[in-house]
Amino acid sequence: MEPVEAVMEAEARDAAVHHRALVVRGPLFGVATQGENDGRRWRVVVEVTHGCPQQARDALNSLLWFRAKGEAKSLQERRALLAAVARLETECVDELTVLETRYRVVRAEEYAALDAHGDIETPRPTDPAPLTPDWSPGASARSPRVDDDLVLDPDAPLSPLQAAERLSLRSLAYTGARFPDPVLHDSVQAVETHPDVVLMPTAFLIVERSGNEPWTPGSGLQATVHDARRILAFALTWMEPRTRGLIAYDAEPEVDASTVVAENTSPAVAELAAFVEAADRLRAGRLNEVEVHGTVFRIGRSRRLLRWGPGGPEGPRPSDINTHAPDVLHPRMDEHGTVYFEEPVEGDAGS
């Protein structure tokens, strides 16, 4: 075992001792593909971070539309891609094959580890983070994306602790009166139809709570600890002051707690200064938790698992809820790649 791997394994053992409970947040959805020569491997092409199956289908719709627009090498390729787009505009399609590639909407379970006090695990020292943190406004565009180029391989080698965790999670299913019967039924059935699990890379998010309230998510998933910290720093100086009415919602985008404190003309300067000070401490100390005005903001360590069966990763369950129906997302395109922002006059298509 390499030195870094040994340290990571030691950290994982220590975390398992101090964080013995798990809390399940619920399902997340994305899209994975499998080519003819991929064996049992699938590749994630739409990050597994979406809150419902239809959001993942919409992302696949856009992915295929833009491939038809910019990557199709022939009329036949563009026709095949646009035919798939047309289906996704009207049907709740969870799997389709386009140009010999299988596309499947996949379902992951998001969970986090809790300590004896019910606190969510924070990042570990070996979790991914840049050597030189970039706090500039444009940093998000240069940051890695969650699940970027991720290959899902149920046969990939595992460390002893990863193998033990994977084995322990095979029986994970929803329990309790707060879940409707159809959800409980589908959860139990999934253990039978997809008995194995594949652990996905760790991701990070902001969680927050006030007083004795439960932790609630304050951001989406991020690929690195620093990305989550950077978003938290922005939230502390820009979003939280607006949410709390300390800065007007319609203020100019460049106005934040730092600029208002520097001007020293607002009656909310003292309250805003606390947010600025917290953001400064976060940046300087690479902290995982700060408290401002009675609210604790923490960088949480999120984990995800995919259930796996003989046919590959699990797709959406019948009881999974969609927030909206399929719809047309992009202008019409013909097989030549011409995009019509209005319906073409009869006889114009292909001319």
Walk me through this protein's architecture.
The protein is of the alpha+beta class and 351 residues long. Helix content is 34%, strand content 23%. Strands 1, 2, 3, 4, 5, 6, 7, 8, 9, 10 and 11 form an eleven-stranded antiparallel beta sheet that branches. Strands 12-13 form a two-stranded antiparallel sheet. The longest helix is centred in the middle third of the chain and has 19 residues. The mean pLDDT is 92.
Compact description:
The chain contains 9 helices and 13 strands. With 351 residues, the protein is an alpha+beta fold.
Features:
351 residues, alpha+beta, eleven-stranded antiparallel beta sheet, two-stranded antiparallel sheet, 9 helices, 34% helix
Fold topology:
Blueprint: H1 3-18, E1 21-34, E2 42-50, H2 53-70, H3 75-90, E3 95-98, E4 101-114, H4 139-142, E5 151-152, H5 160-169, H6 181-193, E6 196-199, E7 203-210, E8 216-217, H7 225-243, H8 257-263, H9 269-285, E9 289-292, E10 295-309, E11 312-313, E12 332-333, E13 339-340
Antiparallel strand pairs: 1-2, 1-4, 2-5, 3-4, 4-10, 6-10, 7-8, 7-10, 9-10, 10-11, 12-13
Helix pairs in contact: 2-3, 7-9, 8-9
